[in-house]
Amino acid sequence: MKTLAFADLKQRVSSYIESRDDLDNIEKAYRFADEHHRGQKRLSGEAFVNHPLNVAYILSEYQTDPTTIIAGLLHDCIEDTPATYADIESRFGEEVALLTEGVTKLGQYKFKGVDDLEEEKHLLQAKNYQKMLIAMSKDIRVLIIKLADRLHNLRTLESLPEHKQKRIAKETLDIFAPLAHRLGMYLLKAEMEDTAFKYLNPSQYRMMAKLISETREAREEDLELMRMNIEYLLSENDFDYNVSGRIKNIYSVHKKMVTKNKEFEDIYDLLALRIIVKSIEACYSVIGVIHSKWTPIPNRFKDYIAMPKPNLYQSLHTSVIANGKVYEVQIRTKEMDHIAEYGIAAHWSYKQNRDRVPMTEMVSKKLKWYGELIKFTEESEREEDILNLLRDDILHSNVYVFTPKGDIIDLPKGATPLDFAFRIHTEVGIKTVGAIVNGKIAPLEYQLQTGDIVNVKTSANSFGPNDNWLKIVKTSNAKAKIKNYLNKQRRDVLIEMGEEAFERELEARNTDLSLTDAMCLDHFQHKGIRSVEDLYYEIGKNTFSAIGALNALLGEEKKRDDELIDSINRKRIKESKNDVNIIIEGIDNPAVKLSNCCSPIPGDQITGYITKGSGVAIHRSRCNNLQSLDRERAIDVAWGDDLERVYNVTIKMLVHNRDNILADVINTITTHKGKVNQVAASTNKRGEGVIKIKLGIKHKQELEIILKHLNAIDDVFNIERLMK
Fold first, then answer.
1. In Å, what is the CA distance from 475 to each residue of 392, 412, 414, 423, 482?
2. Do domains 6-183 and 396-488 have the same CATH topology?
3. DSSP state of 391
4. What pLDDT, on a 0 to 100 scale, did the predictor assign at position 8?
5. Is the model's pLDDT at 123 over the cut of 90?
6. In b/e form, how buried is each residue of 257-288, taking b as 16+ CB within 10 angstroms?
7. How far apart are the first and last CA of the chain?
8. Closest by alpha carbon to 332, among 303, 311, 374, 301?
9. Mutual orientation of helices 334-342 and 186-200 as an angle, nearest 10°?
10. In whole angstroms, what is the distance from residue 349 CA to residue 69 CA?
């Protein structure tokens, strides 16, 4: 590798930085680093200052601003020399000092010992993630400098002992290469991956390199023939174009073979060509011409122009069969090609950022995931949550789903509609009561697939998250927000609600039970319940039913759904009064009855209808039957002031069939002061559960509260109040 001199860096930065003051400050920074690192050697034997010089040169290849170049030159001074933060701030300003300090903190973490790698599953310690996130959230340039630092360290890795080589290589593949990918910096990512792979798994690397090398000549001949055919086709159609072959890096081929369980010969994009044209319109025209000449492979066309990847990548991809071989063809503009190689750096290069928009502000607008990271870092109450967000959500997001408006949301594999909801907004997640995926009702446990269109059903009356949601969600983002919501709930209110539900169940069974902490510990310790208060709390949260708790305490088996329905339907609820509580102006003690077709209750808008020989029938004003009757016989009526009478209303629920779903529904109704009078349960053609319940309530407001809590039960998709 060529030994770099400062003149090389100066020539490079002078190609895009015109300010003499900026160039002078870069030279001063090099002199400062050279002076403070003087006498220090790297393990290779070369002068230590060569390392920061190379880091700055890598940064200049991305045309970063002078501040970043200077910080790259000084990034090891605070840690490895007597220079202090104050020294750098006084010489080069606060911005450079903050970047230098950020890179220093970022560089202080290491993997655990090599002997612990397998046992620890190669995970970094949480406190080290914390340093990375804090530094990243303050200024993305800290990460860019660290990536350049890591790339040069990889280039000189042969000087280190084998155990350090493996540690750094593993760290690179686990953390830094994925971060480079998320920033869209393909060239840097590819070199990182191949170099790390070579040291981490030398035999696999040599095997892959040999396979690629042995087939290179034949592939190059095939690519050249296809390139000539494409160029002829494009020239015939008067396109302004540039066609080139594309080489996939070694690690990417290896990873695809492993993850997709494919043989080397089955990797389509080994034969890949890239077509560069002048405009987006030309991209789509070219794809039409290509498909008219060669047969496209089904399901291999991808439009990343209309729907860019989260790292800003844009291109059209297709795979076609030509000359008996499969070729991947990528079509993009020159600007898209630049972004494909340099990623976010193509947007924040010094030339394009002369207005000096703050770098972190610019990147957070361009990269949605980075903006979310900053926002979550500011909102989170626990450092561990921030660390998990980076490790579990951002670095492993490979499922791309769509909002109804067509916006792309990237999530890790296994994510559910609840994860999607919380990614959209915390309030959307909290108010979620169901989900529609690709136009069909989907359970909240459904694992989203790339390409799914997700529409979250919300309700202002949603009861909010419960502990079961923590078992459903995959992302650390959603888990943290659910836990935060649950922690903020008033524990004493939930305890009171749970106690009331338990007492009602005791009364319904005519059972006298003196509940103690010892009894709860004995029966429910496996559920984390150690006291009476804990039991009431879990019942109040709807994570444990009063029915199930009492069954366990009395040693009774859980009632089957058919037994539960039968026991309810045998009961008869006595109404508190026989009159119907209706007022008709000018008439005392009118003959009035509530119509069964719509079952009106206090709080409903109602209309009276004078029947022939049966007095006045009371309908809900929007009752379908009322609309078909003679409107001349309709009269104004109103509800009386009797607040104790119980009225019947029927609801229909669509649910996911699972154990205890009916018990959860009934327990929720009784917990919130409803009386279950009759129940019927069945299964529709789609295998969904259908529950019809006639319940007794005193006012529409009570019904609305019950419906709100029923909507919050897991696996309840839809609820409607029946009306003919």
1. 7, 7, 9, 9, 11
2. no
3. I
4. 94
5. no
6. beeeeeebeebebbbbbbbbbeebebbebbbe
7. 83
8. 303
9. 40
10. 12
Q: Is 380 helix (H, G, I), strand (E, B) or coil?
A: coil
The confidence score (pLDDT) of residue 53 equals 96
Between 510 and 561, the more confident residue is 510
Chain segment 643-678, per-residue pLDDT in tens:
778 888 999 998 887 777 888 888 888 888 888 888
- pLDDT tens column, 76-102: 999 889 999 999 999 999 989 989 988
The residue type of 103 is V
Q: Are 639 and 645 spatial neighbours (Cβ–Cβ below 8 Å)?
A: no
Residue 616, SS3 per DSSP: strand
Q: Would you state the structure tokens that stand for residue 398, as one six-digit string?
A: 């490979």
**Hey, what are 552's tokens?**
């366990």
Q: What is the CATH number of domain 6-183?
A: 1.10.3210.10
The C-alpha angle 404, 406, 407, rounded to 5 degrees, equals 105
Residue 570: which residues within 8 A CB-CB, separation 6 or more? none
Residue 82 DSSP symbol: S
b/e sequence 473-495, b meaning 16+ C-beta within 10 Å: bbbbbbbbbbbbbbeeeeeeebb
Distance of CA 560 to the CA centre of its chain: 38
Measured CA to CA, the distance from residue 58 to residue 168 in angstroms comes to 19
Nearest to 395 by CA among 412, 378, 420, 379: 412
Catalogue the active-site residues: 79-80
Model confidence, pTM: 0.57
3-state DSSP call for residue 694? strand
Q: When comparing pLDDT for 130 and 81, which is higher?
A: 81
Take residue 143 and report the two structure tokens written for it: 């990460």
DSSP 659: T
- Residue extents of the structural domains in the chain: 6-183, 203-342, 396-488, 582-639
Question: What is the tens place of the pLDDT at every residue in 37-53?
Answer: 999 998 888 899 999 99
Instruction: Tell the CATH superfamily of the 203-342 domain.
Output: Beta Polymerase, domain 2 (3.30.460.10)
Predicted local distance difference test score (pLDDT) of residue 126: 46
pLDDT band, very low/low/confident/very high, at 237 (cuts 50, 70, 90): very high
Q: What are phi and psi of 642, to 5 degrees?
A: -75, 115
- C-alpha separations of 625 from 15, 118, 600, 614, 723 in Å: 82, 72, 13, 17, 9
**Predicted pLDDT of residue 112:** 39
Q: How far apart are CA 89 and CA 97, in angstroms?
A: 5
Which CATH architecture does the domain made up of 396-488 adopt? Roll (3.10)
pLDDT band at 346, cuts 50/70/90? Answer: low
